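May I ask for an example protein's residues together with how it folds?

___
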Amino acid sequence: MNDAAAPEKRLVLIDGSGYIFRAFFALPPMTRPDGTPVNAVFGFTNMLFKLMQERPQDDLVVVFDHGRTSFRNDLYDQYKANREEPPEELRPQFKLVRDAARALGLPVIELEGYEADDLIASYVKKAREAGEPVVIVSSDKDLMQLVGDGVEMWDPMKQKPIGRAEVIEKFGVGPELVRDALALIGDASDNVPGVPGIGPKNACQLLTEFGSLEGLLANLDKIKQPKRRETLRENAERARLSYRLVCLNDEAPLPQGLDELRRRPFDPKQLLAFLQENGFKSLAGRIEQLAPAAEAARAERREQGEKRFSTLTSLSELDAVLARARDLGRLALDTETTSLDVSRARLVGVCLAVEPGEGFYVPLAHIDEFGQKRPGQLDLSEVVQRLAPVLADPSVLKIGHNIKYDMGVLAHYGLEIAPIDDTMLMSYVLHGASHGHGMDELAKRYLDYDTIPYEAVCGKGAARIGFAEAAIDRATAYAAEDAEVTLRLWQAFRPRLLEERMLAVYETLERPIVPVIADMERWGVRVDAERLRRLSADFTQRMAEREAEAYRLAGRSFNLGSPKQLGEVLFDELGLGGAGKRTKTGAHATGADVLEELAAQGHELPRVILEWRQLQKLTRTYTDALVEQIDPDTGRVHTCFSLAATSTGRLSSTEPNLQNIPIRTEEGRKIREAFVPAEGFVLVSADYSQIELRILAHMADIKPLKEAFASNVDIHAVTASQMFGVPVEKVGADLRRSAKTINYGIVYGIGAFGLAQRLGIPQAKAKEYIESYFRQYPGIKDYMDRTKAEAREKGFVRTLDGRRCYIPEINAKIPSRRAYAERAAINAPVQGTAADIMKRAMARVWRALRRELPEVRMLLQVHDELVFEVPMEQVAAAEAVIKPVMEGAASLSVPLVVEIGSGMNWDEAH
């Protein structure tokens, strides 16, 4: 029998901001494969991992400064004013050390307006009130004020503890007088003034004699040395100011409670991916040795978790859960249905959770192998009746993952959900397109939890069954887990939105758009099936004509859809473009860029192939597919808008994709003619005019462009005039077209090669055009350089509203990848800001129409355009609401202009 007592669990608060600087200067330069410096990250990660091994029973938390300013700057504007900017090689490592801590499964704490020291002091206070001992990992002298009963420090560089004896050794006084000593001594690194001529030795003598700073200042007449006495008298207020500056604010709001800081096993796969990305091979090897034990711990935890999921089989049990939701003010929910298509999905069951660690499933429509309803299920109408008041209760927050889908499903039963939070969108705001936002992936990454796979309940392949056919006991673990995991993701992401200053993006742009999109998907858009069939026949005939023309030009028949056969014809037989480009497999490249280049050189066959491909795409994607996607119950097409799929915040459309219908071609416009309003209604299109150019003019502060927009003149003619030295009234179509191509190309970071291809001019001439453009508008070049530098430093750029657009390969060693990333970095703030403006406009227009014209329906959002279905007699009234709201969706130094039109089909309205 082992009588040794288990070691006491401690809260270990790691001063991340202090350690990264020490690690940076202590270790030699290191870079990862893409050239990013990582010496501080390596030291930081190594220290954290070592601490985790040495303190397996303790809760480890990493605390950072949020920025360079805090409330102390309000007290003294020169606080930290003499600090130099961090070294260039250190800046990209600030984000990476936070990533390292999260990869190790450790909480990361920071808060705007407070330094790490204040947060550490506040957590020390809270932990000691709870009777929990604390270790502060830091050698920062300011934190020595906190050493005392149940609180010690650990110097990670010298690998030794700092207790009361060590504090006295350093200052000559105990921790209770460290603040007084610092007020007298001052601190050159933080620009804390102190009292001139008073060093540690003198401060110790004075405080030992007079007991405190105020005791000293109240007894200045007792100081024997005249010069010291006068110095103290003259600088008494400086000392008091310094006393306030070195004070640790232990009342700082805590971003996470103590219960949220408890130790969790790390995810070996996530950690290994981080270490490998940064080239930390030795650390990766050590982690791999520990992986089996971590996997076993996770499996055990999951087994325990599955036991906490239960089936609700009585209304009294459901009422009890809903009552708890009202008491706590929150309810995580999910729906299990018959289809992923929200317009056709019907309820099979409802999943609920109110507290982490338990989840509930309400089965409603499970059937056996004979198609009979399984016993033990509640009546759908009674469950709907119970849910309705809670789902509509403004005091109960409803939490979902992609809750737009659940809102659409529950709307079939007359249920409205408000207010809501969406963990998918929280993750999207925090992480952008840096990874996926499916619940299973997020649970793995951020909760270290393996969710039950769908196949474990419903099988796979030919033996796969629908969820309604699954046994209720098996369905319960899977379904209730969804709601419980969603609740835990909410608890993990919600404080991070505040910590990382992303709450406004979520609250003002993402969350308000959810009910808007749910409505749009539910309404759908009416499509004229007969017109599409006629178009399909026309396109098919024209494809046959292009095919015959291709055979004639090639001198033989071949499969136009085969890249291999096409490459042989173009390059081996006809010898177009020399040897041509090759794919990785050695075959001839025949992509659109290759064919466009050949067509620009005057070759007919590539042009014919491009036309044939366009017609084939339109037929397959739209004229044939749209007919199949018309809902037989509504006579409409119900597209799905993806809210978390793009790197810039733009919405995307799938099943079908209505955002890629070409609008500059005759064929694309014909497809738009097939989108029609319901009887008695008209389609109204509201389109932002040149919004990205307007945003660029604002962001880059380009005075000539801003003046042109303010005067509502032809912006492309103005650009042509200023670039080519021609009066605006004499700018011809060719010059205007060139200026327009450059204007829009610059937004996308176009180079000389790309511009030459678009304008059909020599590359040297295109280079001259771009250089002329930058001379005319130097602010654009400054903006581009500034944006690329920001991307290289942080790994992301921001929109005007603060959305992060991640640029993963901005520091890539391969020049082509790096150049592509730089172009993306230039465009992302502009395109992302346009997306943010559109989202804000959609939410505001939706609310205004519900209030003033509830019969008007918002149907589609396509890039810079919104499409509405409006009763014929309300067109003027609707336009009077829509246009001013959209134009007022952002405050820029240039006006936003919305062009609005109406018609009996989409093309006519646009």
Remarks:
- The first helix runs from residue 16 to 26.
